[in-house]
Prior knowledge:
There is one protein chain. α7 links the parallel β5 and β6 (208-211). The protein has helices at residues 8-19, 59-72, 108-111, 115-119, 130-138, 165-175, 191-204, 214-225, and strands at residues 37-44, 78-85, 99-103, 148-155, 180-187, 208-211, 238-243, 251-255, 261-265, 271-275, 277-283, 286-293, 298-301, 304-308, 316-319, 326-330, 336-339, 342-348, 351-357, 362-365, 368-373, 380-384, 389-393, 399-402, 405-410, 415-420, 425-429. The relative contact order is 0.10. By secondary structure, the chain is α/β, with parallel strands linked by helices. It has eight helices and 27 strands. The strands form seven sheets. Strands 3-2-1-4-5-6 form a six-stranded mixed β-sheet, sandwiched between helices. A four-stranded antiparallel β-sheet has the order 9-8-11-12. The protein has four domains: 8-225, von Willebrand factor, type A domain (Rossmann fold), CATH 3.40.50; 238-301; 304-365; 368-429, Immunoglobulin-like (Sandwich), CATH 2.60.40. Helix content is 19%, strand content 36%. α2 crosses α8 (214-225) and α6 (165-175) runs parallel beside α7.
Amino acid sequence: MPGARHSWPAFALALTLVLTSPALAAEGQAPSQPRYAQVEVILDASGSMKANLPGSQSRLEAAKKAIEEFAAGLPRGFDLALRAYGHTAARERHDCEDTELLLPFGRLDEDRKRLGALLRPVTARGYTPITWVLGVAAKDFPPDAPGERIIVLVSDGRETCAGDPCATAKALSAAGVKRLVVHTVGFGVDEAARAELTCIASVTGGRYFDATDVASLAAALASAVITPGQQVAAPSGQGKLKFVSPSLAGHAVVNAESGQKVASLSRTQSTVSLPAGIYSVSVGSSAFKGVEVKPGETTTLTPARIEVTNPTVAGHDILDPETGEVVARVSATASSAVVLPGRYEVAFGEALWPVAVDSDQTLVLSPGVVVLVNAGPRFTYVFDTAGNKVGRLSNTQKWLPLPPGDYEIDLGERREPFSLGEGQRLELRR
C-alpha cells in the first residue's frame, strides 16, 4: 500500500516463505525447493523522471531508493540484473537506443551492498525507448540458465520512440525456448501510459502494478517477483474498437504486429470491427499504443482535448514535456486539439504552460494578456523571473498572451516587474 513501511529482514523472510510454498513452486519442483528465477529490473531514467513527488524528492531518486530496498530484501536463489534507460543522452540528441546494463546477472551477491553506488550516477535526461529496451533486455538473460525469466519494467510514461512495446513484448515472450514474462510498474502514470504498460504485461502473462512513492514501488517490485506468469492463449475471433469524439482529421488504425494500416476512425465511423490483436491508433503526431482488441469485447479509446481562448494567429504548439516534440497545435483558425491523456507544455511565445489532461476532459487555457500602450517601432521584450526572453511587443504586435505568473518588461530606461493572472488583461505604458 502507498505509504506503508516495511521491515526488510522480515520482508526477506516472508518472501522466502512465499517462494517455497507449494502454490508457487515451479512445475515438477518439490515444495521444499526454493523457486529460482532470473529477474531483470528495468529502470526508467528518462527526462520525465526529474519531476518531483510530494516532499520534493524526484521520481528517479525515489525509484533508486525503492530498488535498493527491494534488492536488499531479495533472498539468495534469485539472480538479479539491473538495466536503466534514458539517462546517457540529453533529449536534444533524440536517442532512441539509450540504455545501459548497470548490473549483469550473476553479480548480485558481490554487488548487493554497492548497488547504491551503481545507481548514483544515473540522471534523468532523455527519451523513453521501451520497445528498444525490451529487445535489448531479452538478450541479457543467459540462454542456458535454469529457472524463470522475468522482466520488471518500471516506467512513469509511455513509449516516446518508434515501435509498439506491447507487440514487441508479445513477440519476445513467444520467441524463446523459455517464455519471458514481463511485469510492469507504472510510477505515477497517466491513463494512456497505464494502458500501454498493462498491455505489455498482459500479452506475456505478467501483471501490472501501480506505485506512487518509495514504499509502494518497493512493494510492487517485491510482489512482481513472486507473481507467477500466466499462460497466454492466442486470441481468435473479432472484437470492436471504438474512438470517442474523433477529430475532424480522423485516426489511422495500424496492426502493431504487422505494421499495416487496417482501418480509419472518424466522425462518420467511430467504431470498427477487427480481428483480436494489438493495434496503435494515431492521435495527431502521437498515438495510442498497445491497444488490445479482445474477442467479443469493445475496446474504447477516450482522448482529451486542449483549448486556448483567444489564441494568436501564429498559434501555440502543444509539446511533449519529455521530448520537446510538437504533438498538436492550436491557433486562431483551430482553437482546440485532440490529444492523448497526459502531461504537456503549451507554448505562448517562448513561455511554456505545463498542464495535465485526463481522458474525456476538455482543458480550457485562458492566458493572461499584457498590452503595451504607446508601443514604439522597436521591439519591447518580456522576460520571466529567470531572465529568459519569453515574448516581444511593438506597434504592430501590441498584445501578448502569457501563462499566469511573474514577469518583467524591458522599457528601455528600466525593467518593470508585473504579475499576470489567468484570463487577466493588463495594460502597461512606456
